[in-house]
Each structure stands twice: as C-alpha cells, then as structure tokens.
Amino acid sequence: MIRTTQEYSYTHGAPLHHHAYLLDPLLQLLPRSQPQQPSLRILDLGCGNGSLTQQLAQAGYLMTGVEESASGIAVARQCAPDCTFIQASIYELPDAELAHAFDGVIAAEVIEHLLYPRALIRAAKKCLKPGGQIVLTTPYHGYWKNLALALLDKGDQHFNPLWDGGHVKFFSVNTLTQILVEEGLTDLHFKFAGRVPYFWKSMLCSSSVATH
User: Fold this and answer.
1) How far from each other are the two terminal CA atoms of the chain, in whole angstroms?
2) 3-class state of residue 199 by DSSP
C-alpha cells in the first residue's frame, strides 16, 4: 500500500537544528504585549516535537502547538509542559478550538513540505484574531544560492527527491510574496537567517490580514 501521508517520528524534545538560527529573528517579528497587558496567544502550526513552542513560551507567549505526528505530540506534551498541544492536520484544523483565538500564528519550516501551501495560509488566517499576524519561515532560495548549488554539483543533495516527506516546494522572496499577497496578506516584512547574505539557510516573513 502506498502511503499518502508521512508520519514524522520524534524521539526527543531537544531543539531541532534550525531553531538555533531561527529563534532570534522570529522573536523580532512576533508581536509583543504591552506592559500591564495579558500575554499574547500564539499558535505554532506544524510544531513537531514542541521544542520551539516551548522556547516561545519561555519568552512570555501563551503557546498552543498543532502537529499531525503522534510521536511529535507525545514528546511535546512530555517536554513542553507550559504549552497546549493538539494533534491535527493543517488541512483539517478543529475550528471550534482554534478559530479567531490567536494574536499570532507561526509555521516554522513547514510550508515547503506541503503539496497545497495555500491551505496553510488559509488555516492560519482562520485562527487569527482581528489585527493578528502570521510569521512563516522556509528555506531561502535565490539566484546566487541556486547558482552556487549548481556550480558545486550539490543539486541532488539539496533537492533530494528520495527523502520521503521531504521538501516539495522551494520558495524565493518573490514567490513567497506572491502567494501571501494572493491570499489577502499585507504589510510583509522579511528577515533572513543562517550563513552569509544571499546564501541564507532560511527566510522569515511576517504579514497581516488585509483589511477592507
């Protein structure tokens, strides 16, 4: 039988490798509560083992994580006691629990794994309070980085089609901007993380729902 979904297996709650370079710029993009105001509620879509969710909780946010992997949820609930975790697919979120409930939604290194990336953006929008903010991170692709991969014969390694559940979408600043704008997002702000300029590992983009 051919599997149509990928069960990612998690065995520990330690931070994943990309958290080391994503955490600081992510914190710079997320909204902050004002003094004497309640902590902001943030939803982490595709939270994996919950380690990033826990790090954001330690930074003062009220965190909820959503993850489809059963092992990811089990590890997260054990290792991130300050957070709430829900096992669900990004394609089928429980609206009764999540709709219009959050000041911000993040999805760290998730959108590149989805055959239907617009579904992630639409799900995030449903979960936001009015005036809320979405922050996406995804591996960076641009002319100079792609040229270097070709010249160094690293294409098969970087775009490896043999990785079950691996990356199926490869975004540039232009294409990430296009999909966000087409889905009704505005006020886009980009940051970049890892390595030297134009060879970055990842890019981060914050955006808000357009008001009419």
Assistant:
1) 48
2) coil
pLDDT of residue 8: 75
| Contact status, residue 127 vs residue 94, Cβ threshold 8 Å | no
Long-range own/partner contacts, residues 188-196 (CB < 8 A, 24 or more apart): 189/29, 191/25, 191/28, 191/29, 192/25, 192/140, 193/21, 193/22, 193/24, 193/25, 193/137, 194/18, 194/21
* Two tokens, residue 152: 């160094």
* CA atoms of 115 and 139, how far apart (whole Å): 16
Question: How is the chain split into domains, by residue range?
Answer: 89-160+167-209
Backbone angles phi and psi of 63, in degrees to 5: -105, 140
pLDDT for the residue 174 = 97
* DSSP 8-class letter at 107: E
| Residues 44 and 63: beta-carbon distance below 8 Å | yes
Element (H, E) at 189: strand 185-193
Tokens of residue 71, six digits: 């092992």
Domain 89-160+167-209 falls in which CATH fold?
A: Rossmann fold (3.40.50)
Size of the chain, expressed as the number of residues it contains: 212
**C-alpha to C-alpha distance for 135 and 159, rounded to whole angstroms:** 24
The rounded distance, in Å, linking the Cα atoms of 1 and 147 is 39
113-155: pLDDT as tens digits:
999 999 999 999 999 999 999 999 999 999 999 899 899 988 8
